[in-house]
Amino acid sequence: MGEAVVASARPSIRLGLKENWRQFSLLVLINAFVGGMVGIERTVVPLIGAKEFHIESTTLITSFIISFGVIKALANLVSGQLADTWGRKRVLVVGWLLALPVPFMIIGAPHWEWVIAANVLLGASQGFAWSMTVIMKVDLIGPKGRGLAVGLNEFAGYFAVGLTAFLTGYLASRYGLRPIPIYLGIFYAAAGLILSILVVRDTREFVRLEAAGRSTEASSLSFRDVFLLTSIKDRNLFAASQAGLINNLNDGMSWGIFPLFFTGLGLSVERIGILKAVYPIVWGVCQVVTGPLSDRWGRKGLIVLGMWVQAAGLFLTAFTAQFEWWLFASVLLGIGTAMVYPTLIASVSDASEPSWRARSLSVYRFWRDLGYAIGALSAGLIADRFGFAYAILAIAVVTFISGGIVAIAMREHR
Asked: Is residue 286 part of a domain?
């Protein structure tokens, strides 16, 4: 993308999408498999808790999302440091090794605790594998096309989430919640691991190329310095981190609450699968547009508007009781999230120096994916006390407020 930059010491290393399209495309495919591993859970796992294990507490049912979110957030936090010391490829392979047991544990789970344990492994796997596909694409493409790189990465991941959610819902409606719908996860884990070991190349040389000639002062930052900068000290990084947390807070709520909410209002498993598929598919597809659009228009406006569109989708879900309105609300959620998701990662990359960008992205992803746990826990507690609709409404209000914080705190970075 743009003019290729040639390193004097390593002429074969050049930044850009055109120059690195083979590795870039491979990483897009691998991230589709990463997303598919989450997709196997979106429709059927909350229903397994309610129907097979007869769990009545919403908070207990959503506990698998809490374990997933906490562990994924912690894995994100260390993934950037590991990427700089071990190398991107090694961390990616470790992520896939952690994913391999997950579908087998869900298929054979005799107790709900097995599902929670499977999601501990899945969270660690996602934290390592998804983080590396993002970081490696940003490494390859250089500074001119970060929105495009992230948009394509997140498109692949979340399109696969949605498609797998639909397929598992369809299979569950015909063959039951287990084991057949979960077989997809075995294929994803095996394919992702094989490709990562045999075909993927590390990208640290591209980071060295981009950092060449820049000030070395920033490279001396400690992890603590980067954590504080990304979390609170830099206003752009703070705005992005809190928006990422709230974005995944409402996604964690929808993951755990929506299947139970729709089931309680009489919707079939197949139709729930459709609703659970539309949101991430729209989210995934639209990122192909919103990612590069943020390179042209800037980051801030897309993030603010995207958070408010998500809030509108959540309000509509809570206040209506028809499949068609829920379908439209799912489209709104997908569009809003697509406006926010790649743009936030690109904005963090903008505000970070190449020498500590991987660590800054890992801190941002820590806060973002901690939102899964906070969203599932808070929504579960509210739902147990007041009902599903009130839980959805509460998260909608928080999402709207987060967009306002970005509008006030963030400065456009070009």
From this structure: yes
Q: What is the number of domains present in the chain?
A: 1
Where in the sequence is the domain holding 307, given as residue range(s)?
15-208+221-409
- Look at residue 154 and tell me if it is in a domain: yes
Find the Cα–Cα–Cα–Cα dihedral 109, 113, 114, 116, rounded to 10°: 130
Residue with tokens 């936090």: 77
Question: Which are the contacts of 210, defined by CB distance < 8 A and separation ≥ 6?
Answer: 5, 15, 139, 142, 143, 354
CA dihedral 131, 133, 135, 139 (to 10 degrees): 170
- Does residue 10 belong to any structural domain of this protein? no
385: CATH: 1.20.1250.20
Asked if the structure places residue 343 within a domain, the reply is: yes
What phi and psi values does residue 352 have, to the nearest 5 degrees? -115, 145
Report how far residue 411's alpha carbon sits from residue 281's, in angstroms, rounded to the nearest whole number: 30
Q: What is the DSSP letter of 203?
A: -
Q: Is 265 helix (H, G, I), strand (E, B) or coil?
A: coil
Q: Evaluate whether 192 touches 129 at the Cβ level (below 8 Å).
A: yes
Q: How far apart are CA 235 and CA 242, in angstroms?
A: 11
Q: Which residue has the tokens 């990662």?
A: 345
pLDDT per residue rounded down to tens, the chain (414 residues): 444 443 344 447 777 777 888 999 999 999 999 999 999 988 889 999 999 999 989 888 888 899 999 999 999 888 888 888 888 999 999 999 999 999 999 999 999 999 999 999 999 999 999 989 988 888 888 777 777 787 788 888 988 998 998 999 999 999 999 999 999 999 999 999 999 999 999 887 877 777 665 555 555 678 889 999 999 999 999 999 999 999 999 999 998 899 999 999 999 988 998 998 898 889 888 988 888 888 888 899 999 999 999 999 999 999 998 999 999 999 999 999 999 988 998 899 888 887 788 788 889 989 998 999 999 999 999 999 999 999 999 999 999 999 999 999 998 765
Query: pTM higher than 0.85 for the full model?
Result: no
User: CA of 367: how far to CAs of 25, 130, 221, 408, in Å?
Assistant: 28, 15, 20, 20
CA 268, CA 165: separation in Å to the nearest integer?
14
Other C-beta atoms closer than 10 Å to the C-beta of 406 total 28
What is the chain's percent helix, strand, coil content, to nearest 5? 80, 0, 15
